[in-house]
Each structure stands twice: as C-alpha cells, then as structure tokens.
Amino acid sequence: MTPMLRNFLLAAVCVASAALLWLLATTGTYVLGQSGSAIVAQNTSYLQDASRDGLQDMLLIAEILGLLEVLSTTEVGLTVVVSVSAEAGQALSALTHVMERVLGVATLATGTAEAMLGLNRAAAAASFGLAQLSLGLGAGYFVFRGLNIHNRLQHLAHTLVRMATMLFLIAYLVIPYSINASGWLANQIAEPGDPSAVQVMHDRTVKRNLSNDPLKYWSDAEHLTRGFKDTINDLPQKLSLMTTHYLGTLIHLLLVGIGFPLLAAALMILVIRRMFDGPPADDGANKTPRAVG
Fold first, then answer.
1. Quick check: pTM over 0.70?
2. What totals of helices (H) and strands (E) does the chain contain, helices first?
3. What is the dihedral of CA 95, 97, 102, 106, to 10 degrees?
4. What is the DSSP letter of 224?
5. Cα dihedral: 141, 145, 149, 151 (round 10)
6. R_g of the chain computed on alpha carbons
7. CA-based nearest residue to 124, from 238, 30, 37
8. Average pLDDT for 3-16
C-alpha cells in the first residue's frame, strides 16, 4: 500500500468514526463516554454530598455563632456573663474565634466542592465536541500528508490534532477520574455513621426548641443563662474538639480535596504528553530526494 493511499484511508477512518459517533448520539443508541457517564454520576453524587454536608455544617455553626454573639454583645447576654463568671467572657471570646475559623474552612470546603462539581459537568459536556474536533482535524492532517502538502501546513495540522486530542483526553479521562480518585480517598478516610464535630458541638451548646421563635427564645434571660452555662460547660474539651476539627478539615481539604486530584491529574497529563511527544512520523511520502553529486 502506498503512503498516499494509507493516509487517505486513515482520513476516511477519522471521518467515518466522527460520523458514527454523531449518528449514535443523535439516535440515542450510544453516547460517547457511556462508561465515563458512570464516573461522572459517581463524582456528582460525591460532590453533592460534600456540598450538602458543608452547608449543613455552616448552618449549625451559624446557630452557634448566633448564640455566642447574643452572649457577647447584647445587654442581657453581658449581664448573664458577668453574673456567672468574670473569666467566662475571655473563654467565650476564644470559642467565638475558633468557631469563626471553622466557619471559614467550612465555607471554603463547600465552595471547592461546588467548583469541582461545575468542572465535572463541564468536562462531561465538552467530551463529545472535543472528540469530534479531534477526529475532524485528524482527517485533515492525513489528507495533507496524502497530498504531500507543504511541511509547515502538515506540522501545523499535526500540532492542532495533538492539542485537540489532549484536550479531549483531559476532559474525558483526566478530570473525571482525578475527581473520582479524590472521592474514593475521602470515602476511605471517612468514618460512616459518626456525627460530625460541628453536630456534637451544636448539640452541646444550642439547647432550644426549634419550633419556638429563636429571637423570642433567646431574649429570655432564663433561657440565655441556661444556654450560656451549656456553652461554657466543659469548655476546654469543646475548644479542643473544634480546634482539632478545624485543623483536620483544613488538611483534608488541602490534601484530599485539592492536592490529591491535582496530583492525579498532573500524572495523567504527563503520561498523555509523553505519548504525544515528538514530531509527526515520516512515512516516506514527504521525503525529498537527495541530489546526487
């Protein structure tokens, strides 16, 4: 088989593959990434759970901070604090500071989960178009080689094919599987069934009937005194619990939520680049005969 015929056959294969993918997708028989769709669904479930847990923690922390704000700023709250202990105000300030930091890291973790969820969906949506683009550019590249068009145009076409193919592999493999690896690692670390530290802290501090009006409830000095005593009871253990939770959540976010998926993505991209490194192969069709001296 001559190099020209081989290049034209490869171009025809690219065009036929693109047409087949388009036909199967429009008829609903098969959509590119059907096996990848399961990964996308797993990622969506994992990230939605992470975002929901983060929002739940943020709501609980907001209730705790609301009680601490009432105790430390309102006239009734200050009266209660002074009546219980002069040193209680300092302890209350320390607890407030820790809870604000916990709220900050919970907000960051929830935002990261939402950003990764959007990236997961964008990659899934772009995979089909990038596959079509890669096949179309590949067909053009093989036609250029078959017609022995100028080398600069062949190298340009080859570069475009490499870029499109790398983008497709990143959207179809790197992004979903790196997120999936992060979810797997998070599930291995998590202890199912155990209440979160924020939930425990909430149960130990905010003691009110949720059916009542919170403003009316906490305006009562008796209720406020009981809430304050619940708050400062075992305060060193509570400070230790929330500090440990803050540090653990921050480390989990940096390593599992950000660092590990970035590392997995970098390794996969490195492998893909090694596969595509090097100039286009010369099949003999583009060789310029040497002048015989």
1. yes
2. 11, 0
3. 140
4. H
5. 80
6. 30
7. 37
8. 83
